[in-house]
Amino acid sequence: MAAAVPGLLRALLLAAAAAALDNGVARTPPMGWLHWERFLCATDCSAQPRRCVSEQLFTEMADVMAAEGWRDAGYQYLCIDDCWAAPTRDERGRLQADPRRFPGGIQRLADYVHARGLKLGIYSDVGNQTCAGFPGSYGHYELDAQTFASWGVDLLKFDGCNSGSLELLAEGYRRMSLALNKTGRPIVYSCEWPFYLRPMQQPNYTEIKQYCNHWRNFFDVYDSWNSIKSILEWTALHQDSIVKIAGPGGWNDPDMLVIGNFGLSWDQAVTQMAMWAIMAAPLFMSNDLRRISPEAKWLLQNKEVIAINQDPLGKQGYRITKDKNFELWERPLSGGAYAVAVLYQQEIGGPQNFSFPLAFLGNGLACNPACSVRQLLPSSRDWGVHSWVSSLSVEVNPTGTVLLRVGAL
Ligand code: GLA
């Protein structure tokens, strides 16, 4: 049967199959802020007025994002996660925000956010309840997509709890994607489809990319080194199937940046920032931007590192070698350049040196016949011009990462 399909047609069909969701957004990994990891499901505003999931939390965050360089660094999407909704739909069957915590509703918040040059994200679930037990979108996909669009929402995180079955899970993710497209409003569609599928079924990433702008593959990030480590290890172990699928319009999502919170040391925060850039990950911070250290701010707003994350070629990086406790990762960039990360996993002792031949990089092409090497993290420093036959030696702290940019000459 396949032999009967003419070659050109087959090529066209295959090209169409690998295409990303064509809604014009997420041509580079989306960047913003998402409340979940830091603020979870705090709903008691009388006990925790500055920490509960409320209009005030988001307007305060919007003010800081606009005033303190976050928006200008690229963090554009201010996103609400679970626990925003009232426990029941309104008399017309529409989702509604909890009236005490969001007195102006989502639309007023969207206007506020847009007036500051930002975009608003919201959250719902493919099943009949969200993971935290709020109303889900099952049976209401079209209506909810229209409601979100009418409020001026720019991103939907669509969770996969309580879906009932794998068929309903897939069907729901597809139907919500089509419903969002039908609204005519460009809305970034953030999925957890492969994560909920994985225990039972291998995800079909070609299909997922046709419907989603980014997708979670693995467990929720926690504010801990263990969590960051496990996300990186999972990604490296599955890189053969997930790296090639990432590109403009569709990205693997290793979950939020937790830099600026409580659980990571400075070197571990550097590792998260460097590796999220290598992985072409969506950059959604979950922290309290109203109170954040100058160091965390420097790291999260680092222009050169963000430029790697946002590189227009849109290729995800991968691990090249793991040598004892050192890992060497690279990411091809536009203009023949490469981002290179050396991660040192040992959790005892002090800094150690790692040497590698530059001919290791880019299958021998990254530094051929010569290249310029610049260190971006943990601090910026020029390493000058190197030739193809030379080796580089970098000193890395335990659980830290050295991030380099290797440019073709
Ligand atoms: C799931 C998701 C998290 C968060 C919570 C909210 O666990 O993976 O990112 O959205 O639900 O309940």
UniProtKB/TrEMBL annotation:
Cellular location(s): Lysosome
EC number(s) reported in the record: 3.2.1.-
One function term, GO molecular function aspect: alpha-galactosidase activity
GO BP: glycoside catabolic process; glycosphingolipid catabolic process; oligosaccharide metabolic process
Pfam families assigned to the protein according to its UniProt record, in alphabetical order: Melibiase_2 (PF16499), Melibiase_2_C (PF17450)
Alphabetic keyword roster: Disulfide bond, Glycoprotein, Glycosidase, Hydrolase, Lipid metabolism, Lysosome, Signal
Listed transmembrane segments: none
Alpha galactosidase A C-terminal domain: residues covered: 314-400
GO cellular component, one term: membrane
Reactions catalysed according to its record: a globoside Gb3Cer (d18:1(4E)) + H2O = a beta-D-Gal-(1->4)-beta-D-Glc-(1<->1)-Cer(d18:1(4E)) + D-galactose; Hydrolysis of terminal, non-reducing alpha-D-galactose residues in alpha-D-galactosides, including galactose oligosaccharides, galactomannans and galactolipids; a globoside Gb3Cer + H2O = a beta-D-galactosyl-(1->4)-beta-D-glucosyl-(1<->1)-ceramide + D-galactose
Signal peptide span: 1-20
Job description of the protein: Catalyzes the hydrolysis of glycosphingolipids and participates in their degradation in the lysosome.
PANTHER family referenced in this protein's UniProt entry, alphabetically: ALPHA-GALACTOSIDASE A, ALPHA-GALACTOSIDASE/ALPHA-N-ACETYLGALACTOSAMINIDASE
Subunit organization: Homodimer.
Family: Belongs to the glycosyl hydrolase 27 family.
Stated name of the protein: Alpha-galactosidase
